Amino acid sequence: MKIYVLFLSLLFVTLNAFAVPPSPLPDGHPLAGTWTFTLPNSECSETYHLRMDGTGFVTSGEEIGESIFEISENPSENGFYKWVDIISKDNGKKDCMGGLMEIGHKATSYVLLHTSGEMILVCQDESLNACFGPLKRVHGNRS
Question: Within a 13 Å sphere around the CA of 3, how many CA atoms are in the beta-carbon half?
Answer without folding.
Answer: 0
